UniProtKB/TrEMBL annotation:
Domain annotation AAA: ranges: 20-172
Top-level taxon of the source organism: Bacteria
InterPro entries (UniProt xref): AAA_14, DUF4143, P-loop_NTPase
PANTHER family noted in UniProt: AAA+ ATPASE DOMAIN-CONTAINING PROTEIN, ATPASE
Protein name stated in the entry: ATPase
Domain DUF4143 positions: 218-379
Length: 436
């Protein structure tokens, strides 16, 4: 069994808290497995009788009648009414359709139209059931509406959202074992989508490519009623190729014009990027002024939630080790609970003519968690002096008390260089350093 202990702990800490637990995340990242297998087994191990755990798979045609929101609510209440405490898992909740308010239709259950405002939806069912004192409710879904981050807004402060991601490197390595260096290269190439992890190399590539075409793009197109996906597809490729580069909608629009010979305005680019973010395919890191201590500007860096998905967009050709490692470090920092920004600052220096000029500098990541803060540079190798000098120059210019870390994709343990900066191998950084 692939363990998801970080998410299991979150479920446990929110058990019986009176709020529904809404599990969101990119499709195929293991939401159903987390609830139906891992969490269910935990409850049984804690002494909960199996008949006090109701799992309702709403995508099963045998449960079609419960796609009616009122039928669903009535069934769950009836099942749980004689039990002191009942744990209810509603899987694929998006299958529940919205109906007109029966008060206005002589009690008939009539599917609602787009313009109807007096309706009963799955949101009403979830909030209603969560008010029953003997029901602890868990919900997951995996299509357009439930995938979108706007579902979090819809429940506001009336639900606990647990955002599930593909396997972190920590989870992947715990399952895979073996050499941590070999594991890093495998993870950078194929990522941590649970079903991909279980397949051989050829099957991994086919599976990951298919996820975009048959699942993610189709969800986005259907949800947003887009007729063509070619521009969406091209934008995804551009972001894949530019992972870890500072970008904005104007820059991407210009790339479309110069490389793709296609005119797409910046508003459309912004819209498409938001669609990828809402489906949890990509994440963004904003710039943070390390001297002014504030977020700045429109430029952003974009990272994929999974390195395997990113590489699938590039047909697994010519992988850039530095980009993949940077994406990997970003994801792992988020998994461990850090707030992560791109660190930027500027200095005024003399040029060769003696004139004062402003120079911009960047630190890959400024990561903060509680009272811990790090400046982090990520690189494949620093054995070359020119490369090392380039990586540490921002650290020297900053000259403050925040710990400065260089993550190298080499099997080395934590050391300090002659300037006092921490140099650490990627495996040691990911599996130990950021967890301490």
């Amino acid at each position: 069994m692939i363990k998801r202990d970080n998410y299991l702990r979150r479920l446990i800490s929110n058990r019986d808290n009176g709020f529904p637990k809404v599990i969101t995340g990119i499709r195929r990242c293991g939401k159903s497995y987390l609830l139906k297998e891992i969490y269910r087994q935990y409850l049984i191990d804690q002494g909960v009788n199996s008949d006090a755990i109701l799992i309702l798979e709403l995508d099963d045609f045998r449960n079609a009648r419960y796609r009616d929101p009122i039928e669903l609510g009535n069934y769950v209440r009836e099942y749980c009414k004689s039990k002191e405490q009942c744990y209810v898992i509603l899987d694929e909740i998006q299958m529940v359709f919205t109906i007109k308010n029966p008060v206005l239709t002589d009690g008939k259950h009539i599917p609602a139209g787009k313009t109807d405002t007096e309706v009963v939806s799955f949101v009403d069912v979830i909030l209603g059931l969560s008010r029953e004192k003997n029901i602890d409710l868990y919900v997951t879904g995996s299509n357009s509406r439930m995938l979108s981050s706007d579902i979090i807004t819809e429940f506001r402060d009336k639900a606990v959202n647990i955002a599930l991601a593909p396997l972190s490197f920590e989870e992947f390595y715990e399952y895979r074992g073996g050499s941590s260096s070999d594991a890093i290269y495998e993870y950078m190439q194929y990522g941590g989508m649970p079903l991909a992890v279980l397949k051989d190399k050829a099957e991994k590539e086919t599976y990951l490519k298919g996820l975009f075409k048959m699942t993610y793009f189709r969800d986005i197109l259907e949800r947003n009623k887009l007729r063509k996906g070619s521009s969406l597809d091209e934008l995804c490729n551009i972001i894949s190729e530019s992972t870890g580069s500072l970008m904005n909608s104007t820059k991407i629009s210009n790339t479309f014009k110069s490389v793709k010979h296609e005119n797409i305005d910046k508003q459309t680019v912004d819209k498409y990027i938001s669609l990828f973010k809402d489906a949890f395919i990509i994440r963004e890191a904003s710039r943070f002024d390390l001297k002014g201590r504030t977020e700045i500007g429109a430029l952003r860096k974009y990272y994929f939630c999974d390195t395997g998905l990113r590489n699938a967009r590039l047909n697994f050709a010519y992988p850039d080790e530095g980009q993949m490692l940077e994406n990997m470090v970003f994801n792992e920092l988020l998994y461990q609970g850090y707030t992560v920004n791109v660190g930027v600052f500027n200095t005024v220096e003399k040029n060769k003519n003696g004139n004062s000029v402003r120079k911009d500098h960047e630190v890959d990541f400024y990561a903060v968690k509680g009272n811990r803060a790090y400046y982090i540079q990520v690189t494949a190798d620093i054995s070359n002096k020119v490369t090392k000098d380039r990586e540490i120059r921002p650290f020297i210019l900053l000259n403050d008390q925040i710990q400065k870390v260089i993550v190298v994709n080499k099997p080395i343990t934590e050391t300090r260089d002659e300037k006092g900066f921490t140099v650490i191998g990627a495996a040691d950084f990911l599996l130990r350093f950021i967890r301490n």
